[in-house]
Write a structure and sequence with these properties.
By secondary structure, this protein is of the alpha/beta class. The chain has 15 helices and 7 strands. The site of guanosine-5'-diphosphate (GDP) has 15 residues, from helix 6.
């Protein structure tokens, strides 16, 4: 298309430039009418879209259609419903909320497992292997992702089907990349809502993947039952790179790439992690996080990783922590949603936006302090009771 276009732009006739060479008077730019634009006659293009083609609009599904499809385990409908959840269009959002509300009574019956690790730690390789391990036992697996930094159009990093070769073609696996970029809270909420839809569709294990580089772990932690941290051995200063907060969140730490020459280093790293974990108080789950070495690529010790996860679920189901944590997560998400909507209501108001812009200028010019400027804007907002 581009090439065609380029070919149609005709070069100006050499004559008109060289006619009065030397005088400069006839140069087109000396003409008062000159606009810097020159329109050349093109050739007539055939229509790029076949005029005989009839546009088939996909029939609009109602909320009930979506719910029916989801409950029947129809992955096409599930995928469309997730797209609806992710849409910014208010009409779509309204239907999405209705669908979620109707799916809620059928949701909640899955094991939700968060998986994090720095890029290159082996998340995709491991998820493919762990996923196959889960599926061999029956049931259905959904793999979702949270990556607030990615935009789908630019190629989402996480949840990409090509990264999980076997799961991508498995009839009982549903893989969905991260919702496109936005605020972390927004992206995380959409993933959380997608979990509800997947559970209603019968997925009994849900993996939520995130890149272990910062705040997104907290979001994932707040929506999963078990949080798995994938680590690498090698540099000898393994512990320095991870934030204490992330270690505290982990229910299990697994050291990947324990294969070949790397086995010894992996064992050493595992010992270091175990020592470090001893310094932390026992978490409210009553479960001491375990450290296991494995190899995703060579599929070594996968059973041990999965036994740990099974043991954890048995432990928290027996002591009631499973339910307590889920209830706390509900409360967390209620508050998150309120905060998000309050913020959106405030910042989307045009009068507030105008006042805010004025006040920002005043603050930048040192005409007003940040505190009085903030209270002026808030007073205005509260007084008008928008
Ligand atoms: P991600 O960025 O965390 O998703 O990591 P990938 O799964 O894409 O893996 C990064 C690289 O590490 C790839 O080249 C993998 O083949 C390699 N890799 C993953 N798991 C293992 C493993 O268990 N052993 C070895 N030796 N390499 C692995």
């Amino acid at each position: 298309m581009d090439n065609n276009h380029k070919n149609n732009v005709q070069a100006p006739e050499p004559d008109c430039h060289h006619k009065q060479a030397g005088t400069g008077l006839d140069h087109p730019e000396n003409d008062a009418q000159y606009t810097g634009l020159q329109v050349n006659a093109g050739i007539v293009q055939p229509p790029s879209v076949n005029p005989y083609l009839k546009r088939h609009k996909r029939p609009q599904l109602t909320a009930n259609d979506y719910v029916e499809g989801i409950l029947a385990g129809n992955t096409t409908v599930l995928g469309q419903a997730v797209t609806l959840v992710e849409s910014l269009n208010p009409d779509h959002q309204q239907v999405a909320q209705e669908v979620i509300e109707k799916c809620l009574p059928y949701a909640g019956h899955s094991k939700r497992i968060g998986i994090t690790g720095v890029p290159g730690a082996g998340k995709s390789t491991s998820i493919d292997v762990f996923g196959m391990h889960v599926l061999e036992r029956g049931g259905k697996l959904a793999v979702l992702a949270i990556d607030p930094s990615s935009e789908r159009t630019k190629g989402s990093i996480l949840g990409d089907k090509t990264r999980m070769e076997r799961l991508a073609v498995h009839p009982r696996a549903f893989i969905r990349p991260s919702p496109s970029a936005g605020s972390l809270g927004g992206v995380a909420r959409k993933t959380r809502e997608t979990i509800v839809l997947c559970e209603a569709a019968g997925y009994d294990t849900v993996f939520v993947e995130t890149v272990g580089v910062g705040q997104s772990e907290t979001a994932v932690h707040s929506m999963v039952d078990f949080f798995l941290l994938i680590q690498l051995a090698g540099t000898g200063d393994e512990l320095q790179g991870i934030k204490r907060g992330i270690m505290e969140m982990a229910d299990g730490i697994v050291i990947n790439k324990a294969d070949g020459d790397n086995v010894e280093r992996a064992n050493l790293a595992a010992a270091q992690f175990r020592n470090a974990l001893h310094l932390f108080p026992l978490p409210p789950s009553g479960w001491s996080p375990q450290v296991i070495t494995y190899s995703g690529y060579y599929e070594l010790n996968i059973d041990a990783v999965w036994k740990m996860i099974d043991d954890y679920f048995a432990h928290v189901e027996a002591n009631g922590y499973f339910d307590t944590k889920r209830r706390h997560q509900e409360r967390y998400w209620m508050r998150e949603t309120i905060e998000e909507q309050l913020k959106a209501h405030f910042y989307n108001n045009q009068q507030v936006q105008r006042l805010l812009a004025d006040k920002q200028r005043a603050v930048l010019a040192s005409r007003q302090s940040s505190f009085t400027a903030a209270s002026d804007v808030l007073d205005f907002y509260f007084k008008h009771g928008f």
